[in-house]
Structures are given as C-alpha cells and as structure tokens.
Amino acid sequence: MSYSFFLLLLLLYPPCCNSLDTITPHQPLNDGDVLLSKDRGAFALGFFSPANSKSRYLGIWFNNISQQTVVWVANRDTPLNTTSGVLSINNHGNLVLHDHNNSFLKPVWSSHVSVSTMSTNASAKLLDTGNFVLIQSSNNSDKVLWQSFDYPGNTYLPYMKLGFDRKTGLNRSLTSWKSPSDPGTGNATYKMDRTGFLPQLFLYANNAPLMRVGPWTGLRLAGAAEMTQDFIFSFFFIDDSNEVSSIYRVNDPNLLSISLLEETGYLRRLVWQGREGKWFELWNGPREECDHYRRCGSNSICNPYHEETFLCQCLPGFEPKSEREWYLKDGSSGCVRKANVSTCRSGEGFVELELVKAPDTSKASVNLGVSMEECRDMCLRDCSCAAYTSANQSSNSGCITWHGDMEDTRKFSQVGQTLFVRVDALELAKYAKHNGHGSPIGKKKMAAILAVSIFFFLFLVATIVMYWFLKVRKQFGRRRNNKHSSFRIHVEENLQNFDNSKHSDLPLLFDLASITSATERFSPANKLGQGGFGSVYKGCLINGREIAVKRLSKNSGQGTEEFKNEVTLLAKLQHRNLVRLLGCCFEKEERMLVYEYLPNKSLDFFIFDETQRSILNWDQRFEIIFGIARGILYLHQDSRLKIIHRDLKASNILLDATMNPKISDFGMAKIFGEDQIQARTRRVVGTYGYMSPEYAMEGQYSTKSDVFSFGVLLLEIVAGKRNTDHDHGRSSPNLIGYVWILWTEGKALDIVDSSLGQSYPCATVLRCIQVGLLCVQENVNNRPSMSEVIVMLGNEAPIRQPQKPAFLFNDSREPEQEPSAAIMEDGSLSVNGITTTSTIFGR
Ligand SMILES: *[C@@H]1O[C@H](CO)[C@@H](O)[C@H](O)[C@H]1NC(C)=O
Ligand SMILES: *[C@@H]1O[C@H](CO)[C@@H](O)[C@H](O)[C@H]1NC(C)=O
Ligand SMILES: *[C@@H]1O[C@H](CO)[C@@H](O)[C@H](O)[C@H]1NC(C)=O
Ligand SMILES: *[C@@H]1O[C@H](CO)[C@@H](O)[C@H](O)[C@H]1NC(C)=O
Ligand SMILES: *[C@@H]1O[C@H](CO)[C@@H](O)[C@H](O)[C@H]1NC(C)=O
Ligand SMILES: *[C@@H]1O[C@H](CO)[C@@H](O)[C@H](O)[C@H]1NC(C)=O
Ligand SMILES: *[C@@H]1O[C@H](CO)[C@@H](O)[C@H](O)[C@H]1NC(C)=O
Ligand SMILES: *[C@@H]1O[C@H](CO)[C@@H](O)[C@H](O)[C@H]1NC(C)=O
Ligand SMILES: *[C@@H]1O[C@H](CO)[C@@H](O)[C@H](O)[C@H]1NC(C)=O
C-alpha cells in the first residue's frame, strides 16, 4: 500500500480511533497514530511524508485544515525509510524516535535531555499552541524538560520565541527546509544577531545577510514597517537578564497564522483563510529593493521614493565615494564625508531624517535611560559621533549613537524612526533652508498653528466655493451627456486568442485604421459613454471580437512615451477581479485604450435600482465584496507595481456573466514606487461620497484612501443605497453616518437592503458592516490594509470595534448625478469642474 494512500487516510480521519493525547513510557506513538493537542485539537503530531517523498518524518501539523501544513519536524535530517517508526519515552525520560526493527540501535532522533534515572515519571503532551512538551511530574509539580518551541523548524508560530536564552545559551531561530519535499536543514535562517548591544533579527540566505528585520524600536521591529498591532496580531519583545525574545500573538486564537521561512530566504506571514480553504499571505520580506541588506553602500540611505531616478542617496554631509559609479546607478561603494567638511567645529548640528530604518546597530553605542536632549548633547560632545536616534520609540528615550560608517539605512513613508545626522554649520544651513529643519521647537509650534488656521480658512472658502459650484453644476449637469458610468467593458481572462506572442508583456498595438473601422468611424451609434477623459465606443474587430475603445481627449498634454509607459504598466495587470486592458493605439494626436467589450452592467445598476437589486442575494453580494477586495489588494500589493485606484465606486465595478466583479477605469490610478506609501496631488479628483477626508481636503492619497472608498462601497452593497442618498429617515448626513448611528445603537442590521428580506446570515452581515466602518474611519492609520480586510472578511474571528467614521460632504447639496472627474491615465489632467475646487485645496 502506498505511503500517500496511507497519508490520505491519516489526514481524512485525524481525530479517529488511534488518537492519544499524551505519550508516556508505557504508551508510545506508532506510525499511523496521531496525538491531538489538548482541549481544542488544533494540532496533530504523528508521522508523515512530505509531498513527493516516501521518507517518514515525525512532525506536527494543523489538524483541522484541508491543506497539509507541517509546522515542526523532529527528525528533519534523519528520515525514516519505513513506516515502522515509534516515538517513545525511554528509561532516561528522553523522547526517542526509533525504527521499530532496530530499537536497540541508536535512536534516529532524541530530545537529548539529561535527567536523573530516578525520576522517570515523564510524559509528553501536545499543547494547543502547537508546542510539544516533555514534562517530568514529581510531587505534584510539573517541570518542562524539553519543548519543541525551543527548536523551531521553518515555521514561526504564535507564542513561539525567536531569540536566545541568556541563562542556558539556547538559540532559537528558524531554518528553512531543503526543499518542499525535504524538511532537512536548509540554507536560509532567520535569527537574532547578538553582535552589538541591541540584538537584531536578520534573515540570512547561505550565511549572507539578506534582510535586517531589525532591532526592536519600542514599537516594532525597525525593518517591518507593516507590523500593525491592532487588527490581527500583537508583537512583543523581551530583552532582560534571562532572555532576548521576539514573540507574536494572534489576537484571536481561532485565527490560524504562521510565518514561514522559505528555502530562498523569504519570510512569509500567512493567515488561514477558512472561507476559501487556503493560506493567505499578509506580509513577506524582503519585499522591496530597499529591504535588502546594504542595498546601498555605507553612509547612504535607500529611498524607494527615488526609484525612477536612483534608490541610493548619500546621508546629509556625505557624498558618493565614486561619482562615476553613482552616475551609473551603482550605489554599492557608498558615500564618504564631503571633502572639505571638518567635523568638531563650532556651529555643528543635526539634520533630522524622519521615517527611516536606523542604521545597523551592531557597531553602535547604546545608552538606555537618557533623554533625547542628553543624547543629543552626548553626540555633539563626541567628535566621532556621526548620528543618533532614540533606543525606545515608545518612550522617546534611550540613546543609540554611531561612530563609524553607517550601514543599511532606509526610508519608509508612513512609520519609522527619526535619525539625527551630524553635519557642519554649512550643511546645517543648507538643510534648514530646504526643510525648515533644525528650527527651534517654538517656531515649529507656531508653524503648526499657522498651518491649522490657514487650513480652516481654506476649508471655509472651499466649502463656499463648492456650494456655489455644485449649484451651478446642477443646473448644467443634465445637459452633459455623462454616461461615463454606463461604460461597460469586459475583458476575458485569457488573451491567448490575441496574436501577441512576441511581446507578451506589452499590450497589443492597434493601428488607427483598424480601430476606426471597428468603431465605424467612431459613429455616434457606437458611443457607449463620455467623461472628462474623452469618449468610449463599442467596436468590432475583423475577427469578430468586440472591444471597447476609450478615446482620450486630444488636449491630454501627455507625451507618447509617457502614454506608452503607462499603458504598458496597466497591461501587465492581470487579475480575475480587474478588467484587462487589451491594447492601445497612438497615432498622430490620437490616444486610445482598447478593452474587451461585454454588454453587461456595472454594480450601481444592480444595487441602486429598485427592481434590479433584488436580483442580488446575500451570497452574491458577499462574493462581490470579496472579489472587489481581492482586486484592490492585487493593485495595492500583489502586483509588482503599487497602484492606488483613486476612483473606486459602484459604477466602476463591472460584473461579468457570473456576477464576478471586475474593477474598471484606471483613469485616475496612480502608480507608486514599490514602497511609496503616500503622495500628494495638487488636483483632487474622484467621486463625492467615496473620497477619503485626507484626500479630499489635503490631496493626500495612499492605499488607505482606496480602503476608505472600499468601505463606502461595502456599506452601499449591504444597504442597497448610495452613500450620498438622503432617504435615511434620520438626521444623518450620509449613509456611513447613518450606519454609524445604528451601529452605536446596536441596530446595525436595520440598514440591510430590504429586498434581502430576512434571508441573510446576521453574523456575517454584521461582520461586513463592522469591516466597512473600520475602513471609513477618519484616521488613516486606524483603517485596516486590504490584506487585513480580506482576513477579517474571510474568517470568523472577532475584530476590533470601529471608531466614528469621517463625514464628508455632509450636506444636501449633492448633484443628482455623481460628478465624476475623469482625467488622463497619468492622473495629470482633470477635466470637469472639480479642478476648480481642488486648486483651492491644492498646494
Ligand atoms: C474544525 O473545523 C470545523 C469546521 O471547519 C469546526 O466546526 C471545528 O470547530 C474545528 N475544530 C477545531 C478544533 O478547530
Ligand atoms: C534511510 O535511507 C537513507 C538513504 O537510503 C539513509 O541515508 C538513511 O540513513 C536511512 N534512514 C534510516 C533511519 O535508516
Ligand atoms: C521489520 O520487521 C518485520 C517483522 O519483524 C518485517 O516484516 C519487516 O520487513 C521489517 N522491515 C524492515 C524494513 O526491515
Ligand atoms: C508518577 O506519576 C503518577 C501519576 O501521575 C504518580 O502517582 C506517581 O507518584 C509518580 N511517581 C513519581 C516517582 O513521581
Ligand atoms: C518529592 O518528595 C519527597 C518527599 O516528600 C522528597 O524526598 C523528594 O526530594 C521530592 N522530589 C522532588 C523532585 O522534589
Ligand atoms: C548561541 O549563539 C551564540 C552566539 O552566536 C553562541 O555563542 C552559542 O554557543 C550558541 N548556543 C548554542 C547552544 O548553540
Ligand atoms: C546551500 O548552499 C550550498 C553552498 O552554498 C549549495 O551548494 C546548496 O545547493 C544550497 N542548498 C540549497 C537547498 O539551496
Ligand atoms: C568646499 O567648500 C566650498 C566653500 O567653502 C564650496 O564652494 C565647495 O562646494 C565645497 N566643496 C564640496 C565638495 O563640498
Ligand atoms: C520603552 O518605553 C516604554 C514606555 O515607556 C516601556 O514600557 C518599555 O518597557 C520601554 N522598553 C524598553 C526596552 O526599555
């Protein structure tokens, strides 16, 4: 009988007859039996064979999920070749693994504890955390002799410690498997580096540092900007006389999560997505160029904002060691002190670099328990001190100083430390002029007050102007044939039919003649819609394929190269929840985008229509919500580019024949550098009701502004009403305000679309509403990321309570039609009147 069949049996009937819960000297575990974890039975311990392997290993895996996920292996380097393995406790109280036929020989694996032969009253238990512990019980007191958590494999489980024990010398680190079919010790490790005062976690591949995940800054690991505490995980760091350990916890124990170190050195944080029955990746690292250890050489800073030009920049007061290499975009030789700078003269000061991962601390000096002022003075007094930062971000105290070359510094855009780099008077003056840095605190405060007053003044003016503008618009609104929202396009998943094999990455280039003939010379009869960007036409190619052609306005001001680049980028996006661009056409003045055509409707047609909305039952709505979330996540994270859509709304969600949602209209999408998190725009474009407050008011957009729009969309889908509709019966400015009122009164289900009747699962719907409210919170940092949204939607685990949402455009002056400010593909041109308003907000 084949092993795999055997394994199948094992997996199909895990909690069956042969499941024990402890191993004692009299009760060993044979191949074929499994040990289930106490209480909840979340984990199982037994013998298994990895995929494509016949070797037998003793391991621990998740008991209750459909995909075999082994989290720990005992005999990883000494596989058994038979199915006659036995795990037992021997006379010395040790856990030993034998091949049954050779039980007199040396064990294949052993826990190697040394206990006195007197006390053999040992037992081994699998705990619900996935920890397998060997316990010695004597005189009513239990002592843990050995535990699997002390010897991690390639999987970092919640509650597991990574680091070292100062007393016993035990090092706890992750080591990858050799390959997915061989759990043997591989080449990649994730461990705590002990050089220097502050221990730092590193990812290594073949003993070379791959990524410095960093020291603990008091708030997070310095290199893991994505460590958000609130939604799913909590992170802890212990550094005391006993141990140095990094630990994480899943806030809800029912949510299964692991961090997996892959053979290549990538660390992936995964969450089990119960609804879909597979692991979902929340984070991986190294993810960006700048995550790679010393991507730029000494005394430089890796800045992903500068991706288009050059990632590496010298720290203040430094210049490239080799101008030539720098010019050729090779930053490896790093930077040196500027030639005619002499330190230790009067007038020196510090340039503040905000939101950075501070340099490698292995050679830094650390002085805990001093304030930042003392730290500054200490650094200034010491001529060799090149920079300082705080050792504990949460108390803003403690002092780290660097006295030599600074390595592996990078820039983040939303969270990070502040690094103070020492410069001479000249340099200081230069930076002060540029950034206003180095100015006394009093001035800063003044500036802040001034900024706030100006902001409120502008806001007032803007409100008045907007009122005026909307009033005028309303009068003219109906004249404009803005059928933008009824623009239907559909793109088939697979483009194989297209003869595009030569440049599979590049979009198809259509010639003007074929487009002209396909659209019958852009005949008005074929016109599908029009927006600020231009018009959309239906077309039919010679081979019978229907297409939708978006003919961009001629006055776009965009050059051919820019247009080509943009289109090439967009054409690379492939996801079942995104409409796909097929190609483009640019000849003479013409700029056109070609999509597949489908005579189907967009989401607004269904959810906001009295009769149509009953077509969508709850399950379909949930699938739509989930599909949209997946599409946005792809834009934000999964694709190599980071894309902010900026105009998510019901009319931009198209539904295919199976009601699978597809996000369309990337007219306003902004492509970010891989790590850029936030940007500002001078022109605020988008749609009222879906715009996040920071975007509408300050022109600041980030992935979290899309999260906001998604939240609005989610609530609209649940309620079957537009956010901007006003039949809420109560004095609430908009739908999200109304939902919030009901939520606080515990009556959130009142908003559910009446056409759903009672036929919906209350718990799931409430969960959706809660997620929706979390997404529309005022504070950007309180909004979850799209991956967190997906985890929250896909699992039953309890989630955080939302706070009061942002109310925006909270008056009755909405136009009947959604004003859709459309622009060219590069986000540079907004055509309709919103530009008027936004120039006031703009800066
Ligand atoms: C195992 O999964 C089933 C169905 O998904 C669930 O009902 C049960 O509570 C789970 N058991 C454990 C121990 O997680
Ligand atoms: C299993 O076979 C491999 C190779 O044939 C050998 O190296 C290994 O020692 C064997 N394991 C045992 C437990 O006999
Ligand atoms: C183990 O022993 C049993 C009987 O004692 C025998 O049938 C079996 O073939 C042996 N297996 C191996 C791998 O030697
Ligand atoms: C071993 O454990 C059993 C039951 O757990 C207990 O009755 C016995 O006293 C223990 N023996 C020793 C030597 O501790
Ligand atoms: C257990 O208790 C006995 C007497 O009560 C004592 O002699 C023995 O040292 C104790 N063993 C341990 C391990 O504490
Ligand atoms: C743990 O690592 C440290 C430093 O790398 C080393 O000195 C020590 O021997 C290691 N301890 C064990 C038990 O391997
Ligand atoms: C590990 O590293 C060695 C030498 O650096 C290499 O030969 C081997 O292929 C690597 N193994 C894996 C699994 O990458
Ligand atoms: C050296 O200093 C002079 C002025 O003192 C300045 O003009 C020049 O740019 C400096 N050179 C460098 C390489 O910074
Ligand atoms: C950092 O500061 C916080 C708040 O004061 C404190 O709770 C924490 O223990 C400090 N951490 C270290 C490592 O000193």
UniProtKB/TrEMBL annotation:
EC number, as in UniProt: 2.7.11.1
Domain Bulb-type lectin, residue spans: 20-147
Name of one Pfam family that matches: S_locus_glycop
Membrane-spanning segments: 446-470
Gene3D superfamilies: Bulb-type lectin domain (2.90.10.10), Phosphorylase Kinase, domain 1 (3.30.200.20), Transferase(Phosphotransferase) domain 1 (1.10.510.10)
SUPFAM superfamilies (UniProt xref): alpha-D-mannose-specific plant lectins, Protein kinase-like (PK-like)
UniProtKB keywords: ATP-binding, Cell membrane, Disulfide bond, EGF-like domain, Glycoprotein, Kinase, Membrane, Nucleotide-binding, Serine/threonine-protein kinase, Signal, Transferase, Transmembrane, Transmembrane helix
Predominant location category: membrane
Residue ranges of every copy of the EGF-like domain listed in the record: 286-323
Cell compartment(s), UniProt: Cell membrane
Official protein name in the record: Receptor-like serine/threonine-protein kinase
Organism, scientific name: Stylosanthes scabra
The organism's taxonomic lineage, starting at the top: Eukaryota, Viridiplantae, Streptophyta, Embryophyta, Tracheophyta
